[in-house]
Specification:
Layout: E1 5-11, H1 17-24, E2 29-35, E3 40-42, E4 47-49, H2 52-59, E5 64-65, H3 74-83, E6 87-91, H4 99-102, E7 108-113, E8 121-122, H5 125-131, E9 136-143, E10 153-160, H6 167-190, E11 206-207, H7 224-233, E12 240-244, E13 247-257, E14 265-269, E15 272-276, E16 281-289, E17 295-296, H8 297-304
Parallel strand pairs: 1-2, 1-6, 2-5, 6-7, 8-11
Antiparallel strand pairs: 3-4, 7-9, 9-10, 12-13, 13-16, 14-15, 15-16, 16-17
Helix pairs in contact: 1-6, 5-7
Length: 310
């Protein structure tokens, strides 16, 4: 029986859960420890909540480490060194790792990134491809170096983007792909049969960390296609919204339509609500006034139709 491949796994959100489980449940690997971000306050009630990766690791009785900061954290770094892992596997962890940490594993530090690198380096690759209306995306398995998402690539796995995908459904698909492929990638690297190839720096693009204000739309200056892409990219968070008559209106469900209006703004027709844009029209199926609950359009119009009358 050959020796198990030793892993220190670093990840935080739901996206990183399925790949973690795939390694824990594979007899060829030993997940020595799981490193994730500290618990934080979530929601209106500010309840202290553990990251999804921590919850999953504890279900398997794996040791969990939650350092506030890794850089210059001597105790934590020494702990990793003492584990002598073969790999650091990093998936949406949430902190930049210093070179001292990347050099700890005996074989490699590998990052699993939700884009076809060098496209969409950075914090929001899944949102970025939807925002740009791309037809495909994928998962990159990258040998890490200190410059963000710039290391050489061991393997790329491409998948098509369905026109009805949003950030949640696409993240689920990519997480599943990573869970299926990651064990074989690590085994191939450990056996020396998979060498990383450098990225083409001339093709590199970047995406920023999303904030709640990114969901603001401007129908007067944005097309229906652009707004629909924003909705896909920012569902479920932060969502898209616009200001109308000094009120914030959150659009929860929209579809494209062949309806034509000669100007931007809201239009009611046959108890349906449409949004004219710079180019094209959207039908709104569910919406919400800030501070109120989300309603299907017909129910919303029953009490708020006057809001859209000029």
């Amino acid at each position: 029986m050959h020796e198990k491949i030793k892993i220190v796994y670093m990840g935080t959100p739901e996206f990183a859960v399925a790949p973690l489980k795939s390694l824990i449940e594979n007899d060829n690997f030993e997940v020595q420890a799981v490193v994730t971000q500290p618990d934080k306050k979530i929601g209106r009630k500010q309840k202290i909540t553990a990251p999804p990766v921590k919850k999953s690791a504890l279900e398997y009785d794996k040791p969990v480490l939650q350092p506030d900061i890794i850089k210059n954290n001597t105790d934590f770094i020494n702990l990793l060194k003492n584990l002598k892992p073969d790999f650091l596997v990093v998936i949406a962890f949430g902190q930049i790792l210093p070179g001292e940490v990347l050099k700890i594993p005996t074989i490699s530090s590998i990052n699993v990134h939700g884009s076809l690198l060098p496209m969409y380096r950075g914090a929001s690759p899944i949102n970025a491809c939807l925002l740009n209306g791309d037809a495909e995306t994928g998962v990159s398995y990258m040998k890490m170096k200190e410059k963000m998402d710039a290391g050489p690539i061991y393997q790329l796995q491409r998948i098509p983007i369905d026109p009805i995908d949003d950030a949640k459904t696409l993240a689920e698909k990519l997480s599943t792909v990573a869970a299926l492929q990651l064990p074989s990638v690590l085994e191939s690297v450990s056996e020396g049969i998979l060498d990383p190839l450098p990225q083409d720096e001339n093709k590199a693009s970047y995406c920023h960390k999303i904030n709640k204000h990114d969901g603001l739309i401007d129908p007067q200056n944005e097309t229906a296609e652009k707004i629909l892409n924003k909705w896909r990219a920012y569902t479920p968070w932060p969502g898209i919204y616009m200001m109308h008559n000094d009120k914030k209106i959150i659009l929860h469900d929209i579809i494209s339509t062949d309806k034509i209006f000669n100007q931007s703004g809201f239009f009611i027709e046959n108890n349906k609500l449409f949004l004219g844009t710079k180019d094209g029209t959207l039908e709104i199926l569910m919406l919400q006034l800030e501070g109120k609950k989300a309603l299907k359009t017909q129910e919303f119009l029953a009490g708020n139709a006057s809001l859209f009358k000029t």
